[in-house]
Amino acid sequence: MARVSFQDELCKGCGLCVAVCPKSILQLDNDRLNSKGYHPVTCIDQSRCIGCTFCAVQCPDSVITVEK
To answer: Rounded to whole angstroms, how far apart are CA atoms 61 and 12?
Structure first.
């Protein structure tokens, strides 16, 4: 099973990863803010992650890690 993780403090909440996820399991966490004042991305269902790495490739700040 694949697993996706994020460096929340470095995420600027741009949403590019959310837009490219083929399983639609990523979303901006509107209930949290990081220290820079951005809503970081979160995975709503790790069990559906297919490990495609589209999100990590799209991230301009390299804050996403995908483990297969």
So the answer is: 8
